[in-house]
Each structure stands twice: as C-alpha cells, then as structure tokens.
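agent> call fold_tool(seq_1)
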Amino acid sequence: MGRLIALLILLIPGLIATLGIKLMRDTLFGILHPMYVHLVIQFLAGLLFFIAGLAFVGGFILHRDRKRNLTKGRFKKKA
C-alpha cells in the first residue's frame, strides 16, 4: 500500500514536469497554445513547471534516502 501511495505522490509532479518540457518544446517549434499570450510567457511557464516538478521529485527522493540513512556526508541532515 505504501508503494502505491508513493507512486501516486510522484506521478503528479512527474506529469507537471512533462507538461513543462512539452511547453518548452512547442515554443521552440513556434506552436502557441491559446492559454498563453506570447511565446516567451509560454516558455517561462514551461520552465517553471519543469523545475517545480523536478525539484519535488528530487526532494522526495532525498527525503526518502535521508530517512533510510543512505546519503553521504554532504546531504546528511544537520542536528
């Protein structure tokens, strides 16, 4: 059950990061989605989505590894 919950927690930010990559790719090919006014705004929104999704997944993995004591000295939690 715990693994299923972890998968669902990681699925949503993963999809957000994927949407960010798609928006940035569409900007490079000149495809403007109706939700955005300008290509630059679309690219920045895609970059923000990608960074937010990647940061969440990375933070989740770091938190899990700290909990299991798998991190090296640099990433150890300070007391």
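agent> call fold_tool(seq_2)
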Amino acid sequence: MKGLVYGGAGQRTWTEIPDAHIRDPRDAVIRIDAVTICGTDLHILAGDVPEVTPGRVLGHEAVGTVVERGPAVTGLAVGDRVLASCISACGSCRFCREATYGQCLSGGGWILGHTINGVQAEYARIPFADLSTYRLPRQVSSENAVMLADILPTSYEVGVLNGRVRPGDTVVVVGAGPIGLAAIITAKLFSPAHIVVIDKAESRLQAAKILGADVTLTPERVALGAIRALTQGLGADVVMEAVGSPETFELCTTLVRPGGTVANIGVHGKPATLHLEDLWIRNLTITTGLVDTHSTPRLLAMLAAGQIDVTQLVTHRFALEEIEEAYDVFARPGQTGALKVLLTR
C-alpha cells in the first residue's frame, strides 16, 4: 500500500509502505475513503513537532471503512463506515475516565501521524478502535464527517468551551484558517453579540464572513480601538489564538478585556513572550489545550440534524494519490484560497 511519509523537515513523499495490520486485540484496520490535511501537518513539516521522526506516515483526520478488526473489538463490524478520531483513547486510565482523552496514559492521545503511522495512506491501523472511531449515520457524508475528526472538536473544546463563550459576548478569532473558521461555526452556537476575525489572507476573511463573522480585519488594520468600539471601550470577552505564532499570541493578549479569556488553540513551535508586567493586573485567564474529542458524539448528532453546517470548509478536492499536490495547494492559502483540501479514494 502507499502512504505520505515524513522524511524530515520540509520532506514528504507518497510512496510504498508496509501494509497496515492488527497489532493489538483492540485495533481495527480501515480502508481510507476520505482524508484531509491539517495545519498541524504543516507544523510537522516545518520541524515544529520533534516527536515526529522521519519515516512516519502523516495524517490524523479520516473517514474509512472497517476491513479488519481485532478479537477484542466489540462495537464495530467489517464494512462499517467510521470517523477515525484524531485522538485515541484507552478508556481506562485516569485521564480517560475523566474524558480528557488527549492526555491518555496508556498509549492513546494524539498518536496518529505523531507517534505512530497516521491516516494519509490507503489503509490505516486504528488503536483502541471501539473508543477511537464513530460509526457514521447514512445521512452524513464522508466529506462532512471528516471535518469532525479534528477541527470541529478542537475549535469547540479548546476555543469555545475553554474560552467560556457566553450569549452577548464579543469574540475575536485570530487566524481564519480551518480551525479559526470552525471556531466561528461553534461559537455561534452560544449567540455571541459580535464575532471579529483577523487574518492576513483576504480569501479567508471572505470565508469568515460567509460563516458568520460580523467584522473582519487584517493585522495591518487591527487597532485595539476597533475592538473597543464594539465593547464600550473594554476589549473582547474572549480572544482565540488559531495560528500558533508568537506574534499572534501576543496580539491576543492586547485585545482581551480585563477579566476576559485568551484561549490558545494554535500549535506553537517557538516561544512567545508573556508580558506579565502588563497582564498581571488585568485578571486574565489564559487557557491552552490539546483536544480531547469528548464533544465528537454531540457534534456528530448536530451535524446529522442539520444544526451545524460545514459544507463551506472544503475548497479543493483531489484523488488520494494526488496528495503531494494537495499539500502544495494547502500550504499556500494566500495564493490558492485553500481552506480544507479533501482527498478521496
């Protein structure tokens, strides 16, 4: 079979790899039907995630069909169409018992495309398959479902829930990539008064408007005054960092009101300065987090019921074997207008 193999910083190749197979009784093997590329994959290729070593198959967002299951897998059958979660969960360690699956102590957490081979391949092994996959309703397409592998639960849990978005809030999202756009979709569930989105790319700001942003700004046009004008001079109630750079994190801390929350979603590869000399007196809450995916069943139910709409997120479609071209398109959103790129079997 073939997969997209990381060869070190800046290096990736679609090439022959060993077949996926059952290694543990709780494993399943799925045929990949739909897969996408995450901004985290770009961070890996930039060398920002040193735990990913050369030879690793990348990818952690996929929908597939079960082709083999281990003898301890009880909730899946061969032929089931499933969402493969970006987070694997043993289900029995302390953190899994608290539904913080991202911190699993027994070989789970974010492992796909990170510490084990991922899903940007023709087939993939899914550990802890009963707890790390979700059978899909017929009315949910694979294209829509794959948005729930990572970006919807990440934005909802690490951005909206950690940020404590409430009705009437002014919410600022810094970064209008797929995570930032998913933050708009899920923040709207809580009826904020204003959603302000900041990004460099005009195409992404247009997408943000379509998805419900009330105000869009480029970094060059950002002034604290623009946010204060919406908030009686206070600043934003919640600011979400959805880029993963020192500059954007530091910008977030300037836009939040006293007593507000900065929810960091982005993957950071470099240190950011925390200006405590200015922030200590402002009663701020700063949150970080790896998604736990405890919200995936709820989000899937809302998707099936038509309560959330992710159809605007996919902008480019490729065959699976065109994945290297898809990476090139995804990595240049300013030129290509790419949001999510979808690859199908």
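agent> summarizing second result for user.
Residues 2-150+292-344 form a domain with the Quinone Oxidoreductase; Chain A, domain 1 fold (CATH 3.90.180.10). The chain has two domains: 2-150+292-344, 152-287.
agent> awaiting next instruction.
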